[in-house]
Amino acid sequence: MAEQVIEPRMQQDFVEILATQALSGMDPIS
Question: Diameter of the chain by CA atoms?
Fold first, then answer.
């Protein structure tokens, strides 16, 4: 059940990363 708690946090971090990359114009870090 831990995944359900981790997913939203990871999604938020992922969104922040995408937003930062979009603003910085940098390639996505995979």
Answer: 36
End-to-end CA, the chain: 26
DSSP code at position 20: H
Task: Write the pLDDT tens digit of every residue in 3-28.
Answer: 666 677 788 888 898 888 888 876 66
Question: How many Cβ atoms from other residues are within 10 Å of residue 21's Cβ?
Answer: 13
Cα-based distances in Å from 4 to 10, 15, 20, 23, 26: 10, 17, 25, 29, 30
pTM of the predicted protein model: 0.46
Distance from C-alpha of 20 to C-alpha of 17, rounded to nearest angstrom? 5
